[in-house]
Amino acid sequence: MIALILASSSILTTAQQAGRSAFTVFNSTGRLPPTCSQGYSAGRDEVLYTVPYTYPQVLSIIGSFANITWNGITATTLNGTDNTVGIARTFDYFGLRLIETIKRYEKPVRGPYFEDHTIAPSYNPATNLSLYAFTDALTATPVCDGAAVALNFTAVFCSTDVGAAGEIFHSIHLMHAMTLQEFLGNETWTRCEYSYVCHGQNHHGDQWSYGW
Fold first, then answer.
1. Closest Cα partner for 93 from 118, 119, 113?
2. Do 106 and 114 form a contact (C-beta atoms < 8 A)?
């Protein structure tokens, strides 16, 4: 955690000078505020996307938290061991320096895969946008008798502009899903019916398609 704080100090300084309490809390404790700080509002974004590939095929691509080069993003590992609680990675997106740290990770052989990380406070001075996330989770559930995988991206976040932050989360998650599909071969789809439980909610689908 010390390495994470040091690596992000240059990012946090500007925001601290602007009086943003979320940055102050994180910089002094290495922890996110327990609720949305003053000046921030709560937001949530969910992307559902089903790909016509098996669970092992999907995991062969997404199964490393430290390596997301398949998605055209080069992330730098700040500390920790890949796929373990506490590992942190950082990369730039939409003018934001995102620092993500795993808080829960499960990769059972038969699924479902589950990875949940936090996002440290980040600030884009060009748009005056600040955000951080308690949860940015990905669940990959085998469906259709193992012929497909249902992806669920869910972010629970705080931001000074919830609409803009929601668009960023939606964009990056949809890009992850569509790039994964393309990387695996971008096969044509056929129909199937399925249902599964994710984040305590029932999800149903009648074709291999994406939704948002």
1. 119
2. yes
